[in-house]
Specification:
mainly alpha, 3-stranded antiparallel sheet, 9 helices
Length: 215
Amino acid sequence: MRLRQETLAARFGVSRTPVREALRKLEARGIVELEPHRGALVRGPTAREIRDAYEVRAELEGLAAELATARIRDRELHALREAEAMFRHTIAELVDDRRRAKTAPASEPSDGEWARANDLFHRAIQDAAGNRRLVEVVEHLHRSFPRDLTWAALADSSVLLEQNVDEHHRILEAIERGDAEEARRQMIDHVRGAGELIARRFEQLASGVQSSGSG
């Protein structure tokens, strides 16, 4: 999408100066590219950027799972179990509905329930880890790569969604039995796997755009 200063200024009822400054800030964050006399072009992440970000996120969330295993209290473990059960129930209902109605994934209106259940699970582990700075860094990565990217990579496949549930369950089991090393390994594999799915989807989309453009 191309953003033009004059259009944005008129839409928000301001002069072009604050719009120009806002676009420069977005450029500094890598969200847009400013092109002379053509405005700003919104850019999406590359597959390499996605893999790099999820590689970092995997290590951070793996550390959170390791810390949580050693520090988790009864109420936090209860919250984690509830989050895992909610996630499992959400996916089971979705998959069952699809199989009964033979509904194409594209007809489903929202990723809201999946995102809420998924966030509850990951956040329960991060809260139990008891490291505020770790949570802040993970949240920054989430803002850079929104959760709907993961949903977009998973939504077309009930098999992948059920695999996602199994991965959450293995993480929970490792934490329950106090196996910090295994909890960390399972979380790293889980997050890296999601990142790879997203990166491959972006590569497929880019390939499709290139093919249509060359045709």
